[in-house]
Structure formats: C-alpha cells, structure tokens
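Quick bug: Glycosyltransferase 2-like domain-containing protein output formatted oddly.
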Amino acid sequence: MITVCCLKVGDKYSSEYVNKLYSMVERNLTVEHDFICITDNPEGVNCKTA
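Here's what came back:
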C-alpha cells in the first residue's frame, strides 16, 4: 500500500483543487492506496485530513 499526500496551506488554492486531485488519483491509481491532505483549513476537503 502507498500513501498519496498533498499539502494545502493558506488560501492560494481552494478545497476544489484538493478535491480534483483526490478524484484524479482515485480514478487513475490502480494500486492499493490512501490519500491524505495535510491542511490548516479542512473545510470543503472531501478526503482524509491531518
């Protein structure tokens, strides 16, 4: 299993960007994986956050 991690800090990018990345990874990555977003503002993010 692998872990895909993205980092969203500040307000340059909205949660929409994280959600699009999450959707693309889920659709195209065929190996078993976890997706996590490390963020200071989890509002609107549709995946696991830390």
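Actually, after a second look the formatting is fine. The first strand starts at residue 2 and ends at 8. Closing.
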